[in-house]
Design a protein that fits this description.
The protein has 472 residues and is an alpha/beta fold. It contains 19 helices and ten strands. The longest helix is centred in the last third of the chain and has 18 residues.
Length: 472
């Protein structure tokens, strides 16, 4: 457990008071939802208009609590090419989603030059430019991860190109993208040695940036250092990962990560508004194991499993928006139902999620992959998120073939291997990983990717010979 935590009493006070990273080629769009989540939306009711919960933020005014993350945009091709990051964005559907979101009160749209093969900003700009500028707030980032983009000239070009793609003459929220990855050395290379942080601060003074902040993943030293500079740079906001699993367990799941309790607490000390990313952990908290879903639905049969996570993320008053990458209209409608208006968690519901549900999920020890595809493309063609998603899915469903003495072992073994071949072509499976480590530095969840791939490869090889997980 990370030692830098606020107390439980402070935690309850907070919740009871009221109401990424890689170059453009490395990030794709989500093109296929999971059946369990889709089934839950079949009887979905229409969200009300005019009921959105808003939070006030200095220099800006009212911000919708639900923010639209423009990273997992719908694609025209829903086949293998989508997973290979070759699919074309379905602009007509993006326009429909944006129109519906704005109609129902969403005014915050978050994008990046790195999202969706570098096409997210352009797609976002096309959709938003059809509306009055006063109807939306746009957030984007300096995503200068690739070495060739880290010179002052290249970084400024990236910054200026965002205005062109988004079709705006000012940006409401501008972020240093995914600070912490690569530690202080990487941060200094991207923002200090080239003078970009001071350049962006001047752009804020000139009014071309209305709010300046950063998103954080990784090395806590970088986060703490930037907050220690608050007196100088006056951060207007900070984006952190916050959900009911990461609040207390992020560090225990992966010792490279930091508990959201600490991150949020440090921002609160300085009165810095927080934007929340990964409220569902890439869908993991919407597709929980069946026994967990049953408990959640028993307590609230009228709302989706995902709504618990959204209420959790939106309850702290220091949070001004909660981002969700909504690929389908059903996802957008369900999230709107959570925030139109927000019903804040009470103390008993908070304890239920924190002490009961999160603890159960933590005990399952899944690979903490959110399917963001920041690790892609692998130079050796490996479908890293596909491999992890299949393994986690079987583990969540209790269908992982772990014991050769289990009467169902032969069937579970067959199902796992067939399911793997169907979801991940053999030439893209874990046995082709050479451990180059290129993917690891791009992972926002700081997963030791080659190590996990080699473990899964060994597991699969043992399944092929009929051995159990314990024997492996």
């Amino acid at each position: 457990m990370n030692s830098k935590n606020i107390s439980r009493r402070s935690f309850l006070k907070i919740f009871g008071a009221g109401t990424v990273a890689t170059s453009a080629a490395l990030v794709g769009c989500k093109s296929k939802g999971q059946k369990a989540a889709e089934d839950e939306y079949k009887q979905q009711v229409e969200p009300p208009v005019g009921q959105m919960t808003y939070r006030d933020i200095p220099n800006t005014g009212k911000v919708s609590l639900l923010g639209y993350g423009m990273m997992r945009l719908p694609t025209v091709d829903h086949g293998e090419s989508a997973r290979e990051n070759k699919a074309e964005i379905d602009q007509e559907m993006v326009n429909q989603l944006v129109d519906y979101a704005i109609e129902h009160g969403v005014n915050y749209f978050d994008t990046s030059p790195a999202y969706c093969q570098g096409m997210s900003e352009r797609s976002t700009g096309i959709a938003l430019s059809r509306h009055k500028r006063s109807e939306y707030l746009v957030a984007t980032k300096l995503s200068n991860f690739a070495p060739e983009t880290q010179t002052r000239e290249a970084s400024i070009q990236m910054y200026k190109n965002s205005f062109k793609e988004l079709q705006v003459d000012y940006i409401d929220f501008y972020l240093l993208h995914s600070i912490g990855g690569g530690g202080m050395d990487a941060f200094r290379t991207r923002y200090i040695d080239n003078g970009m942080l001071d350049y962006l601060a001047e752009e804020r003074k000139a009014g071309r940036i209305r709010n300046l902040g950063f998103s954080y993943h990784g090395d806590i030293e970088v986060f703490d250092t930037l907050l220690s500079w608050h007196d100088k740079y006056k951060w207007d906001f900070v984006m952190i990962e916050l959900n009911y699993l990461d609040w207390d367990y992020a560090n225990e799941i992966n010792d490279r990560n930091t508990d959201a309790r600490y991150l949020y607490g440090e921002l609160q000390k300085r009165n810095i508004p927080a934007a929340v990313m990964e409220p569902l952990l890439g869908g993991r908290l919407a597709n929980v194991p069946q026994f967990v879903a049953t408990e959640l639905k028993k307590r609230d049969p009228e709302h989706s499993v995902a709504s618990w996570a959204f209420r959790y993320a939106g309850t702290p008053e220091g949070v001004y928006t909660v981002l969700s990458g909504m690929t389908y209209m059903e996802h957008l409608k369900d999230n709107l139902l959570s925030y139109c208006p927000l019903k804040p968690l009470n103390e008993e519901e908070q304890r239920f999620l924190d002490d009961h549900i999160a603890r159960k999920l933590f005990s399952m020890q899944n690979i903490p992959c959110t399917d963001c595809k920041y690790c892609m493309p692998c130079p050796y063609g490996i479908d890293i998120p596909g491999i992890f998603q299949h393994y986690n899915k079987c583990k969540n469903e209790g269908t992982l073939p772990t014991d050769a003495l289990d009467p169902k072992y032969a069937q579970l073994r067959r199902n796992y291997l067939i399911g793997l071949d169907r979801s991940v072509p053999r030439l893209r499976q874990a046995n082709h990983c050479i451990g180059c480590g290129r993917c690891e530095s791009h992972c926002p969840q700081n997963i030791r990717i080659p190590r996990e791939l080699h473990k899964i490869d060994a597991f699969v090889e043992n399944l092929k010979t009929g051995k159990s997980l314990e024997e492996a």
